[in-house]
Design a protein that fits this description.
- The complex is a heterodimer.
- Chain A has one domain: Arc Repressor Mutant, subunit A (Orthogonal Bundle).
- Helix content of chain A is 51%, strand content 19%.
- Chain A contains four helices and four strands.
- In chain A, α1 crosses α2.
- The longest helix of chain A has 24 residues.
- Chain B has three domains: 67 residues, no CATH class; 146 residues, no CATH class; 92 residues.
- Chain B is built from twelve helices and one strand, in the order ααααααααααααβ.
- In chain B, α5 packs across α11.
- The chains are: A alpha+beta, B mainly alpha.
- At the A-B interface, β1, α2, α3 and β4 of A face α2, α4 and β1 of B.
- β1 of chain A pairs antiparallel with β1 of chain B, so a sheet runs across the interface.
Chain lengths: 111, 352
């Protein structure tokens, strides 16, 4: 199952959860790292994305952990989330291959 | 302590703008994530942070943006918010349609007066194309007319971002005209009517385009696109015919005409709204839409009463228009109230 028109922030959030569960602020940091600082999610935006992804069944709560007297909730990808991310990644990679070919850069990465 | 609140409480106060159902699910998480961005693990430093720091403006703006998206609900949101979201989206389309019909009319009259179609007889003198005097050139006013037509078509076709940009550009000339009039005495005193027109009829629908967000269901494009020529033929052409035949004195002013149009729409919808056998959801969202548009029309009518403060007859006519609006909108109000529990909230769309 693929979420219709996956946005950039949703793609980065799913990617941040691809190698294991993370809590809200952990996702913000991971997205910033993954995007080399280009995507800085605000908390309001992050929870808009998390709410939508949870409603679409692409992520789910994993566990809660006590931290400084508060409970941190961790999220993980569901099976649908994993396949949606894989399909989106393939789509983006295919697009990138076309761009590289058209720019005459196709052989440079391998070389 | 500043205001007797610590940083956690300040964040909770900001989060109160979110709907209750959403806070029940996400508030603890969001507060934790906000605080994680501040706290370092050093007890002394964290104590100072908790006491003196405040949510930043970008953080507050992101929460307000989230609240707007949730209250003007789209697919997957609770029924009540979905109904409000749909009603606001339709109200914006109705307002854009009114602008588009007026804009189309201005462009048709311009072409007719300039004999663009040579075999047409000359336009009657009473249908002369006129634009407001002031610093804004006539060409810009015609571009504004064209912009409203384009904005409406863009909304109907789902190009929401383009519609927002066109909307902002379309309302600027009128603002410049008002500001110029305000400082040069061109506007009537007090200038409530012209400013109410700009705020309620220009600015409000452009701001309310925020309801066309990513989760909004697609607009039913053909019914809305067909509404433009239908609106022109059924409303504007008869209006022009009355003006062309020298009977313009029988026509109400703009705000009165708007009130009467909304009243007619309420009357046309009333049988569905009052029927017990109707499918509640669709009818109710339309009732809510009509209530919103009626609120705009009524507010504009009240604000523009000041234009007639020296003419008791026109004040009476305006009050009758307002009364007709109130009576007709009362016919659909119970249905609008019921819809918040009845409107369905379709699930998020999926492919495959």
């Amino acid at each position: 199952m693929v979420a219709k028109n996956m946005t950039g922030p949703a793609f980065f959030v799913l990617t941040a959860l691809a190698d294991g569960p993370r809590h809200g602020y952990g996702i913000v940091g991971e997205v910033a790292d993954l995007s080399q600082g280009r995507v800085k999610l605000k908390i309001g935006s992050l929870y808009g994305v998390l709410d939508r992804l949870a409603a679409e069944g692409l992520i789910e709560p994993d566990h809660e952990e006590a931290h400084d007297g508060r409970l941190r909730r961790y999220y993980r990808l569901t099976r649908d989330g994993r396949s949606a991310l894989a399909e989106e990644a393939e789509l983006r990679a295919a697009t990138a291959r076309v761009v590289r070919t058209r720019l005459g850069l196709a052989g440079e990465a391998a070389g | 302590m500043s205001g007797d609140l610590d940083l956690e409480q300040r964040y909770r106060r900001v989060l109160r703008v979110l709907p209750v159902y959403y806070r029940a699910q996400w508030e603890e998480d969001m507060v934790g994530a906000f605080l994680d961005g501040w706290l370092t693990g050093d007890p002394d430093e964290d104590s100072v942070t908790m006491e003196y720091d405040r949510p930043t403006w970008p953080e507050v703006a992101s929460v307000i943006g989230l609240a707007a998206r949730l209250y003007l609900g789209g697919l997957g949101t609770p029924r009540r918010y979905f109904a409000w979201g749909q009603a606001v989206r339709r109200a914006v389309l109705v307002m854009a349609l009114v602008h588009a019909v007026v804009g189309l009319d201005a462009l048709v009259l311009l072409d007719w007066n300039r004999r663009v179609i040579s075999w047409l007889p000359a336009a009657p003198a009473s249908l002369g194309a006129a634009t407001p005097n002031g610093v804004v050139p006539a060409t810009v006013w015609y571009l504004v007319d064209f912009a409203w037509v384009m904005l409406f078509v863009a909304l109907a076709l789902g190009y929401y971002r383009a519609a927002r940009v066109i909307g902002v550009l379309a309302i600027v000339p009128n603002l410049i005209y008002l500001l110029q009039g305000q400082f040069t005495g061109l506007l009537p005193s007090p200038p409530l009517g012209p400013w109410a027109f700009w705020i309620l009829i220009n600015l409000a629908p452009v701001l309310a385009m925020a309801a066309f967000h990513r989760d909004a269901p697609p607009t039913a494009r053909w019914p809305w696109l067909l509404a433009l020529p239908a609106g022109y033929l059924l409303v504007e052409v008869p209006y022009l015919a009355v003006v062309a035949t020298g009977n313009a004195a029988w026509l109400p002013d703009n705000s009165g005409f708007f009130c009467l149009l909304v009243s007619l729409a309420c009357l046309a919808h009333a049988p569905r709204a009052l029927s017990r056998t109707r499918r509640a959801a669709e009818s109710g969202v339309w009732s809510l839409t009509l209530m919103l548009v009626a609120a705009v029309a009524g507010a504009y009518r009240i604000a523009s009463l000041s234009d007639y403060r020296h003419d008791p007859h026109l004040i009476k006519v305006s009050l009758v228009e307002l009364l007709i609006l109130l009576v007709t909108v009362a016919l659909v109000t119970p249905d609008a109230a019921r819809t918040q529990a009845a409107a369905p909230a379709p699930p998020y769309p999926h492919l495959g």
